[in-house]
Amino acid sequence: MLLCKPSLLTLPQLRTSTSTPRNPKRSLSIITTNSTTPTQRRRTMSAFEARISLVFALASQASSLSQRLLADTATEVVKYVFPKRFESRTLEEALMAVPDLETVNFKVLSRGDLYEIREVEPYFVAETTMPGRAGFDFNGASQSFNVLAEYLFGKNTTKETMEMTTPVFTRKTQSDGEKMEMTTPVITKRQEDQDKWKMSFVMPSKYGANLPLPKDSSVTIREVPRKIIAVVAFSGFVTDEEVKQRESKLREALKNDAQFQIKERGSVEIAQYNPPFTLPFQRRNEIALEVEKKEK
Q1: Residues whose CB falls within 8 Å of the CB of residue 93, separated by 6 or more in sequence, listed in order
Q2: pTM beyond 0.85, yes or no
Q3: 102 exposed, middle or buried (CB, 10 Å; 0-12, 13-18, 19+)?
Q4: In the chain, how long is the greatest CA-to-CA distance?
Q5: DSSP letter at 161?
Q6: Which of the four, 1, 135, 194, 261, has the lowest number of CB atoms within 10 Å?
């Protein structure tokens, strides 16, 4: 009996030593919870932060694009709201306004009461034949203008959008007058024996001869050589009848010029500098005849 007591006394001690964790399941649960919660929290925050970053990135990109669009729009509007003006000889010319766009380069050789003489530098044009018989027929002019505008704004081999220039030129020439001479975007040229007109856009000078080729076969590119012209400015909207009258007056005035004479088979050109929404009295138009120096 005495020999069994020690073993009986030791049982509680053994039980006590093996039951140190009073609630193993609860302890395990606590351990498991503590080990997984930080991971879950980190994963949730990472996804949330990614969404927030994406939202801010898209908002920033949209804001940047909007600012660029607004800046580009403002730049274009300023060109028309704050136009440049030519040196004027009359009140009519003083009221005329010209958009601040690239135009053909020229220098004034002489200036009189009725006209001025300019030397125009070479430039390149894109041109197309106009339908109809009139140079200022609205439907024909609109159709030709749209064809050339498509080329200018991306319908070309490089899909490049080019800048507009000014003025628009309407040109009438003799049947053998295939060379094109004058200024900025739109030139309309008539072939007398065929009753055809050609409309031309003057190309931005930065391209030089390296212009993209048109995709439309009705559009051709040509270089216009240097030339001398006599120019008269007038306001309002241009009509075929008015062109005839002003051409006749200019030809008559040039007969008395001591230095220059009308070039044989010279062409008459009409330059229109303003967009359609410009008020008539602010519109600047010019009629020009090609001239040459008289032989002494």
Answers
A1: 86, 233, 284
A2: no
A3: middle
A4: 158
A5: -
A6: 1
19-58 burial: b if 16+ Cβ within 10 Å, else e: eeeeeeeeeeeeeeeeeeeeeeeeeeeeeeeeeeeeeeee
The residues, any chain, with a CB within 8 Å of residue 136's CB and separated by 6 or more, are: 170, 188, 238, 239, 240, 243
Compute the distance between CA of residue 126 and CA of residue 138 in angstroms, rounded to an integer.
20
Contact 206, 104 (CB under 8 A): no
The encoded tokens of residue 113 equal 């009461």
Element (DSSP H or E) covering residue 182: none
SS3 102: strand
CB of 218 within 8 A of CB of 130? no
Closest Cα partner for 221 from 275, 180, 274?
A: 180
Tens of pLDDT along the chain (296 residues) come to 444 444 443 444 444 444 444 544 444 444 444 444 554 454 455 666 666 776 667 667 666 656 665 655 555 555 555 556 567 767 788 888 888 888 899 999 999 989 999 999 999 998 888 887 777 888 888 888 899 999 999 999 999 999 988 888 877 755 543 444 444 445 555 544 455 778 888 899 999 999 999 999 999 999 989 999 999 999 999 888 998 999 999 999 999 999 999 998 877 888 888 888 889 999 999 999 999 999 87
> Distances in Å between the alpha carbon of 179 and those of 123, 142, 182?
12, 23, 10
Contacts of 274 (CB under 8 A, 6+ apart): 97, 98, 99, 166, 282, 283, 284
Helix (H, G, I), strand (E, B) or coil at 33: helix
